[in-house]
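Amino Acid Chain and Its Fold in Token Form
===========================================
Purpose: to set a sequence beside its fold so the mapping can be learned.
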Amino acid sequence: MKFKYGALMFLTLPTLCASSVTIFSSSGWVLPESISVAPGGFGSLGGQFIVPDAGSGGNNSIVYSVPTGGGTPSQLASFAGIATTLTGTFAPAGFGTLGGSDLVGGYNLTSTAFNPVIYSIAGSGAETPVYSGSNGKLEGSVVGTAAYSNDILFAEDVTSTFTTTGGAILALNSSSNVSTFATLNFAPSNELFAPSGFGTVGGDLLVTDLNSGNIWAVDPSGNVTLFATVPLVGGQLGLRQMAIAPASYGAYVGDLFVSAAASTTGGGLTGSVDVLTPSGAFVAVLTQGTVAAPFDPRGLYFDGAQLLISDADPEILSAPASAFTSPTPEPSSWAMVVIALAGWAAVRKGA
């Protein structure tokens, strides 16, 4: 049986699946960030999604609740002069006086520096200051494990006079004391604990880089190693939030999903959600090609068979596993494909 070269080349090219991404929540968003779920007993909002919005200009923010089925958000709390960036983590029950509250971190912008802050929010919307520091922005948080003293860990982008100088992992304990768990030589964006058995970094704290495609692993002793590098394309700035796909998410169960931002203030065109295996291999991507609007993703949260994405377009999107496609090879890779196909064609011709 003979094949035409053109037909074979067509079969080799990646195809774009029909768009199956839908809008989960719209109206009122400016720069939606992390997505978390309120525990039962959090006022009348138990089970609803909680999303901090960094706000216009990044220095006036609102924390919203979104019904479980999506729709228009409702304001839970607001902060004048404070940007709630990527953080939003619920403290476990029994975590001192903070148990069950939504811990929202960000920064207070002064004329010379960014000052990191943490606030707790009750189900009633009442706000209580927990921590205030200097020269830094809190970008992401996660509830710790026993190996990490069960503290709540915050990623701090250490800044001085608006210049990034590095980063740190801060640990908030149940007595509301804050200490430095690890010092970093990059600006961290978000954190996630790798599941047990997740490649060579199972149980470690994964941390994304705000200004590159690197994902780092921090072990319980504070040692930092590089886990994987996501290729940034089209002017993407760096990585943001991560999530692990559950068993209900098709072929990607157990894979790591990470968002790549296209701008600092929202509305970028070239953002993506990238998929990596436990070995760090880049296997799938969601880009603006499957989203009928500018795509600039931040927060990620798996809700059964849908992935909720905070899109700084701005809105909250819902994406099934079928919306993801194989990554497009780099031009150099296509050159190798063409060379290989030319060789195959020559062999067929001589047969």
In short: The longest strand covers residues 163-172. The chain has one domain: 17-324. The chain has two helices and 25 strands.
